[in-house]
């Protein structure tokens, strides 16, 4: 016997409650509970039939079957993020802001795969078939043998896929529009999204087709719908970028079949997304070389070195609590670098607003950026521009020492390739590395600060923020440091 059961389900994490409440106890989100009706069997099916379950044959880790090869679509940046092509039978979730280019990327990938002889089905739950065709025309891909459908019912989709020759790839755009007959709640609710995703995951595992789900992103950047969808799929990619820039970054957040630190860089053009093979050139294209407060960081994104400009602005604050604004880096990491500069190097920034920006909209997660951030901060504070032909990398420890970071050789090689002549880096760890740039090793942040301050204009003409007029002196914040006057020569 089945009974109708009303429950309140958090639309953010999927937790269920019997009564409405303002806050979800499970994930802490406010106003996310929505009423959903589910038909549940009052006695679990297994109990009703008195079935005990059957034992399954156990296998060894060593298998004899060779897995199907990965499907390479030919869009290099996408294949690399996927771990060298799509794995048959896997399910991928791609999330991103509206209008970022998810549908464009997937139409391009579908067309490329279909052109290589795979059977690809593109199911749009958001757009009519004509709209998908229009996009394909704009991309010049209307000749590609992709099969289209505009459908939102998961059972209908699976029935369609199950008939006919085997399917290699299915794109579901988007999972939030899907609904299943087996649950009664409205389309878009957690229960519907979860059930539809479950059906599609089961389809992928049973048939060996690769299923790509498009997921919407909420205001705070989470993939909307239950987090459980993220747990159900094999890989979660996010497609990022900001309105002011033409380029987009595909980043793997989870990948059961590949690395999670690779990024794919694309540029949105009038004819769809084009791959950016050398992101460093792109990120450094509009550099303000020679301006104080900018440092070039030689970073790594997965296996690929990426050079980006770090910009800092340090200005006297008129606020009781000075502002710290960061774009593209971890604000906690900035606080740490500021604290180390203060405690170990005597650089006092307590009375200054600090703004930090990673140029070009890239988001850096590496602690190796500490040295470049510190250099940009001190450069902005002292008004001393950093050498335009230098790159920086190294991790700062709380003691003020600069630590070695991984893959120094790859970073140096990329710097040399882009015409940089020197690198400021932690000492040691470079045995056998044939560096084509001159190396300037620093053991501590204090050494770095001293080197930058030595190049600062002796008497910088500083505009006093309070009095107006020119102030003929060093910036106050570095006046009291031990090295300020005696070591500078
Ligand atoms: P779309 O793929 O529809 O985004 P999503 O599916 O993530 O919501 O991309 C829409 C944006 O991309 C839209 O603002 C127009 C732009 N665009 C181009 O600039 N060039 C193109 O060739 C295409 C197809 C779209
Ligand atoms: Mg779309």
From TrEMBL:
Compositional bias per record (Basic and acidic residues), positions renumbered to this chain: 461-483
Matches recorded under SUPFAM superfamilies: P-loop containing nucleoside triphosphate hydrolases, Ribosomal protein S5 domain 2-like
Keyword Hydrolase applies: yes
Record bears the keyword Hydrolase: yes
Family matches, as PROSITE patterns: RECA_2
InterPro entries hit by this protein: AAA+_ATPase (IPR003593), DNA_repair_RadA (IPR004504), P-loop_NTPase (IPR027417), RecA_ATP-bd (IPR020588), Ribosomal_Su5_D2-typ_SF (IPR020568), Ribsml_uS5_D2-typ_fold_subgr (IPR014721), Rubredoxin_2 (IPR041166)
Chain residue ranges for the region called Disordered: 460-489
Keywords: ATP-binding, DNA damage, DNA repair, DNA-binding, Hydrolase, Metal-binding, Nucleotide-binding, Stress response, Zinc, Zinc-finger
Region Lon-protease-like, residue ranges: 353-489
Domain notes: The middle region has homology to RecA with ATPase motifs including the RadA KNRFG motif, while the C-terminus is homologous to Lon protease.
Family of the protein in this entry: Belongs to the RecA family. RadA subfamily.
Function: DNA-dependent ATPase involved in processing of recombination intermediates, plays a role in repairing DNA breaks. Stimulates the branch migration of RecA-mediated strand transfer reactions, allowing the 3' invading strand to extend heteroduplex DNA faster. Binds ssDNA in the presence of ADP but not other nucleotides, has ATPase activity that is stimulated by ssDNA and various branched DNA structures, but inhibited by SSB. Does not have RecA's homology-searching function. Plays a role in repairing double-strand DNA breaks, probably involving stabilizing or processing branched DNA or blocked replication forks.
Stated name of the protein: DNA repair protein RadA
């Amino acid at each position: 016997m089945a009974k109708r059961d009303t429950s309140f389900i958090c639309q953010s994490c999927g937790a269920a409650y019997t009564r409405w409440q303002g806050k979800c106890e499970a994930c802490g989100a406010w106003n996310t509970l929505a009423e959903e009706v589910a038909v549940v069997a009052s006695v679990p099916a297994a109990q009703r039939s008195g079935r005990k379950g059957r034992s399954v044959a156990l296998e060894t880790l060593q298998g004899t079957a060779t897995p199907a090869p990965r499907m390479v679509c030919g869009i290099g940046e996408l294949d690399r993020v996927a771990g060298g092509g799509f794995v048959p039978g896997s399910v991928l979730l791609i999330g991103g802001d509206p209008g970022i280019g998810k549908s464009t990327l997937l139409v391009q990938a579908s067309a490329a795969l279909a052109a290589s002889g795979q059977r690809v089905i593109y199911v749009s739950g958001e757009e009519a078939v004509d709209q998908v065709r229009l996009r394909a025309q704009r991309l010049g891909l209307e000749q590609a043998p992709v099969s289209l459908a505009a459908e939102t019912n998961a059972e209908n989709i699976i029935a369609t896929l199950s008939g006919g020759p085997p399917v290699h790839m299915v794109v579901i755009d988007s999972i939030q529009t899907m609904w299943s007959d087996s649950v009664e709640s409205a389309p878009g609710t957690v229960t519907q999204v979860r059930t539809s995703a479950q059906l599609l995951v089961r389809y992928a595992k049973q048939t060996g087709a690769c299923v790509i789900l498009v997921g919407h992103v909420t205001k705070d950047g989470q993939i909307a719908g239950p987090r459980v969808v993220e747990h159900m799929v094999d890989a979660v990619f996010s497609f990022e970028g900001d309105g002011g820039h033409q380029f987009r970054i595909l980043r793997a957040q989870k990948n059961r079949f590949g690395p999670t630190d690779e990024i794919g860089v694309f540029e949105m053009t009038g004819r769809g997304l084009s791959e950016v093979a050398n992101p460093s050139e792109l990120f450094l294209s509009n550099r303000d070389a020679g301006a104080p407060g900018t440092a070039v960081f030689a970073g790594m994104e997965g296996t690929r070195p990426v050079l980006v400009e770090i910009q800092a602005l340090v200005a006297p604050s008129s606020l009781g609590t000075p502002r710290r604004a960061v774009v593209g880096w971890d604000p906690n990491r900035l606080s740490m670098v500021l604290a180390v500069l203060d405690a170990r190097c005597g650089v006092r920034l307590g009375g200054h607003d600090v703004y930090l920006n990673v140029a070009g909209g890239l988001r850096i997660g590496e602690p190796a950026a500490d040295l470049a951030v510190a250099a940009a901060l001190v450069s902005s504070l002292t008004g001393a521009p950093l050498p335009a032909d230098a790159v920086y990398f190294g991790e700062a420890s709380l003691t003020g020492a600069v630590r070695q970071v991984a893959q120094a050789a790859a970073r140096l090689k990329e710097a040399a390739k882009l015409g940089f002549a020197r690198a400021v880096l932690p000492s040691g760890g470079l045995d056998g590395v044939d560096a084509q740039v001159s190396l300037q090793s620093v053991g501590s942040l204090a050494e770095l600060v001293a080197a930058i301050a030595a190049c600062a204009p002796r008497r910088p003409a500083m505009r006093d923020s309070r009095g107006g007029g020119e102030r003929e002196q060093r910036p106050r914040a570095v006046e009291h440091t031990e090295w300020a006057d005696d070591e500078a020569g």
